[in-house]
């Protein structure tokens, strides 16, 4: 029996003593995981279906890394193991470093080409 | 209810990130995605990682994106008909890939199986020690996993040096100070009397 009030959906979903009007529907861990998977696939679609500029690719990579981070933290919350959150911290560090380098390369690309359009990037010039 | 509204807002903002016409609007919706995911983590009673998401993702990465969007001349192009060529096949493959993961998630996870009447959720707050999220991470990060912490620091250093080295432009003329010339100035060199 949970003796402390909580809005934690994973607790409300698994506790049979929760009154029904207190939660809209019983949320399991699978709901969070499906959310994180949808986010990952939106980021993947952003890379594949991109026809405009290269900045959308970098933002989609950040979306995918955010989805993976959420995945780690959700599993860490349900298994009661803190190592998931620690790994999420390190993945956060890697995401920040990689976005910095990616944007620096984008700036140089713009300096050389004058634009960052996808359509003109397949032409191999010197 | 809160989870439902937040998740709808999250998916909506994520779709608008990749499909907004103006890239500045894309970055704004990316900030909204980060904030919404931080709020979702707040619901799980993970407060440190949630605030860390706000600090690092919004405060560093989204600000980087805003700087680049401000500096570059990004042309706002209209929706071209090339978009529709890849959409059916791409979404079909993506749907298959997504259904694979979705069907995998339908299985039961072990902690949620009620085994002989044991409590499914251990009330740690009633234990003798109660630790916050920061304390738990701090007890592990600096003692058992200090190597990863140091490696993360070196990684950030390398990224910083790399970003500076890539974008440093030596051909721009900057005004330099020649200190030795300033020191060598004497009164007989600098003051002239003109009749």
UniProtKB/TrEMBL annotation, chain B:
Single GO MF annotation: NADH dehydrogenase (ubiquinone) activity
Function (record text): Core subunit of the mitochondrial membrane respiratory chain NADH dehydrogenase (Complex I) which catalyzes electron transfer from NADH through the respiratory chain, using ubiquinone as an electron acceptor. Essential for the catalytic activity and assembly of complex I.
Lineage: Eukaryota, Sar, Stramenopiles, Ochrophyta, Eustigmatophyceae
Source species: Nannochloropsis oceanica
Similarity-based family: Belongs to the complex I subunit 6 family.
Pfam families listed in its UniProt record: Oxidored_q3
Ranges that cross the membrane: 6-22, 27-44, 50-72, 84-105, 145-168
Group of enzyme by EC: translocase
UniProt subcellular location: Mitochondrion membrane
Membrane disposition: Multi-pass membrane protein
NCBIfam families: PRK06638.1-4
Record's catalysed reaction(s): a ubiquinone + NADH + 5 H(+)(in) = a ubiquinol + NAD(+) + 4 H(+)(out)
Presence of keyword Electron transport: yes
Location (main, coarse): mitochondrion
Xref: PANTHER family: NADH-UBIQUINONE OXIDOREDUCTASE CHAIN 6 (PTHR33269)
UniProt keywords, alphabetically: Electron transport, Membrane, Mitochondrion, NAD, Respiratory chain, Translocase, Transmembrane, Transmembrane helix, Transport, Ubiquinone
Record protein name field: NADH-ubiquinone oxidoreductase chain 6
């Amino acid at each position: 029996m949970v003796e402390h009030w909580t809005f934690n959906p994973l607790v409300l979903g698994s506790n049979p003593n929760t009154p029904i009007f207190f939660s809209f529907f019983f949320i399991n861990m699978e709901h969070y995981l499906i959310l994180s998977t949808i986010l990952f696939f939106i980021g993947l679609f952003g890379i594949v279906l991109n026809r405009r500029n290269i900045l959308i690719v970098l933002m989609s990579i950040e979306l995918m890394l955010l989805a993976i981070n959420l995945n780690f933290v959700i599993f860490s919350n349900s298994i009661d193991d803190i190592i998931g959150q620690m790994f999420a911290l390190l993945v956060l560090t890697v995401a920040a470093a990689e976005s910095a380098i990616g944007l620096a390369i984008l700036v140089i690309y713009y300096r050389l080409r004058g634009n960052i359009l996808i359509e003109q990037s397949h032409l191999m010039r010197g | 209810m809160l989870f439902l509204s937040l998740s709808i807002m999250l998916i909506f903002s994520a779709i608008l990130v990749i499909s907004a016409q103006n890239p500045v609007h894309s970055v704004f919706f990316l900030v909204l995605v980060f904030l919404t995911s931080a709020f979702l983590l707040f619901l799980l009673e993970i407060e440190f990682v949630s605030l860390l998401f706000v600090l690092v993702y919004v405060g560093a990465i989204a600000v980087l994106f805003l700087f680049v969007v401000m500096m570059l001349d990004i042309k706002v192009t209209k929706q071209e008909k090339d978009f529709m060529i890849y959409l059916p096949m791409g979404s079909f493959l993506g749907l298959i890939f997504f259904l694979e993961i979705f069907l995998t998630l339908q299985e039961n996870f072990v902690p949620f199986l009620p085994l002989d009447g044991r409590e499914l959720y251990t009330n740690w707050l009633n234990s003798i020690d109660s630790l916050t999220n920061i304390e738990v991470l701090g007890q592990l990060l600096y003692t058992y996993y200090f190597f990863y912490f140091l490696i993360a620091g070196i990684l950030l250093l390398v990224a910083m040096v790399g970003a500076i080295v890539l974008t440093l432009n030596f051909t721009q003329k900057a005004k330099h100070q020649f200190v030795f010339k300033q020191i060598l100035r004497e009164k007989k060199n600098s003051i002239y009397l003109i009749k």
